[in-house]
Input
Amino acid sequence: MPIELCLVKGPEEGLTRIFSDNAEITLGRGTDADFCLKDQSVSRKHCRIKGVNGLFMIRDYGSGNGTKVNNQQIDYAVLKDGDTIEIGLTHVRIQLIN
Output
């Protein structure tokens, strides 16, 4: 099941990207990030989303501002359809595509 990441708040609101179900997606402002964000409050390598056996897991890379899922600070979490990730000023909504 692919995953869609949609920026719902922040400098690039409305930007959407789709990744495969076995993707390993780095989010950050570094140009080498899989999903590069133009948000100065986001670390160069901020967090990673990894698809494993139909589940998507997120892990913070020890970023300066941290990572939240549904307003809860996390180091690691399993994502569900409709979850919102907060990194810096950017909010990313998760949609699992059937």
